[in-house]
Every structure is written in structure tokens, then in C-alpha cells.
Amino acid sequence: MIYNLFKKNYSSLILLIFFLLVLFPQINFAKISDRRAVTTFWTEAPIMPGAAKYFIRSEKIEKKTKNLNNHPIKISEDILRKMLKQLSYKYDRDQPEIPLFSEKELMLLTEHVPKALMTAKPNEDITFVIKGPHSSARWSFKEDRLTAGRLFVANNQLNLIIGAVQVNLQPTLDEQYMGNVWETTKLVYDIGHRRKVSEYEGLIVVYNQNKKGIHRKSSERKDWLIFTNKAYKQAKEDINVKKMSKEQYKTLQQQIDTLQRQLNKPKQQRNIPSPPQQQIQKRKKEPVISKKQINNNDNSHVTEQRLKTIENLYKKGILSEEEYQKKRNEILKGI
After folding, report:
1. 298 and 226 in a common domain
2. Dist CA 293 CA 98 (whole Å)
3. For residue range 208-220, what is the model confidence (pLDDT) as tens digits?
4. What per-residue string of b and e applies to 276-295 under the rule 16 or more CB within 10 Å gives b?
5. Where are the alpha helices (DSSP H) in 60-181?
6. φ and ψ at 148, to 5 degrees?
7. Same domain (yes/no): 158, 253
8. Do both 116 and 169 map to the same domain?
9. What pLDDT is attached to residue 46?
């Protein structure tokens, strides 16, 4: 009896599902599996049934992964933003480069990914599905586009695997006729995998090719980018320079220029007015200092100030260690 009741209800459920599929053929649920999810740091619900769900979370890494990650690890928001901002995207060779991530997407990633990396375990990656406004020669106005992928630190290098790049979220004509004017439900995208190459049109490139340290995993993996220690150090140096205000930099530069002029200035005699009689009498009692000693003292003071100035520039990250040592040797040679 219980079996017959279950069989009857099961048949009714199948008929209901079939009826819904016929009645609402436009619904095509875009779903990323949640079975590996561990901790969610940010999420945004789908705008409508079947549309994409947006999130930044930690997930268990894929099975049979040989090497574990260097997690937990600390990466500052500023450095992560600087590195990710180096990436651009080209739909094809004839199209100009556009930013891979919009400002909105960079804000989300730099706010939540560092927190996730600080709490992630060695067997966990950070995955994301985000959207932000992008402009391109391929469409008239700025429009939201979906980008998805995973981030992790392995071999002390930041890895980024892109699963989907700027996927179109505009509803199809059929969906618009059915009343969907928000986001399409006919999405095909993924979050990127170590063992499977992501398929998408176009190519991710680096804005400034002179800034080395960012490369692809291999020629076959255009979706997998690695930020080496060189890229990390470059981003850190750029941030240290940026933190110094323009006025501070201008003041320090003026100090260097002034000191340089003083050292290069030829020695000149100064016309000193005759002092009063009382001052002459006092000076007779004081020890006589030769002009040579005065010039030596002046040069010593200028040299000391110049050494302090370049030391401050080195500590603030404006001068590299090599530049600092070179400038220091030049100053000492002039003594």
C-alpha cells in the first residue's frame, strides 16, 4: 500500500516537472555546484530564478591535486589590487585592450579575497563569480558582464585561473518578450579548474609588458596566470611611491637639487662689511679659523645632509638598494 502511494505521488511529480518545463521553456538554471564550498565571504542572490548567483568563497581543491597551497597567507588589499589591475582583455586582435576587471569588481576582490586567503587551509582555493560594468567597441554603452575564476597561492606565487570572462548578461529577445528584462537565464560559465582548460573567446594580456613577473602556466593554458615574486615586489614598490604625496616628493626632489647645486658651485669670496669696533675686539680674543677650515666645514655639512636625504629616499622605497649605494659612493668620492 505504501509502495503504491509512493509510486502514484512519484508519477504525479514527474508530470508536474514535465508541465513546468513545457510551460516555462525559457528557464535554464545557471548553477555552479556548492558541494565543495567551505566559507562564503560575500554573496549576492540571483536577480531572478535561473540567473547567476554571485559570490566569493573558499572551496575544497580538486581531487588528485599534487601540491597543496601555501594557505593561510597574507596579501594586502593594495598589492592584490595592483597586481590584478595589470590584466587586460582583448576580444580579438583587432579590438583594443579593455580592463579585465572593472572598478566594482576590483573593489569586491580586494576587500574579500585577502580575508579568505587568511583563513583558507592548504587544501582550499578561493573561487568567485562577480559582475561589473564594462565598456567596449563591441557594444554601445557600459553594461554588466560576468567574470568567474579561482585564486590561490602555491609555490609562494599567486595563481589565477579564469573560468569565464565578461559573459554577456543581456536577456535574449525571447526572454524580453516573456518579460525578462533583467538578466538572462541562458548562461554558460564556470569557475576554472586545474585539470580542465576553460573555453572563452579572446585573450587575457598584461597592460605593461615591461613589468615582468606575470606569465601563463603554459602555452596550452591561456586561462591560468601566475604572479611571481617579481610581480609582487613591483606592486609593493609602486604602492610605496604612490603613498608619498606629490608635495612630499617635490620637496625631497628640491632638497636634492639644492644640495647638488651647492656641491657643484665654484668657491667664491664673499664681501663682508667691516664689523663695529667692539666686535673686532671680541674677535681678537677668539681663535682664528682659516678659510680652508670654513670651506671644509661647509662641505662636510652639505655632504652629511645629502647622505641623510638619499637614505630617506631609500627607506621610503623611491631609490632601490643599487641606486642608493651608487649615489652614496658618488657623494663620498666628492669629499
Report:
1. no
2. 64
3. 766 678 999 998 9
4. eeeeeeeeeeeeeeeeeeee
5. 77-84, 103-119, 173-177
6. -140, 155
7. no
8. yes
9. 92
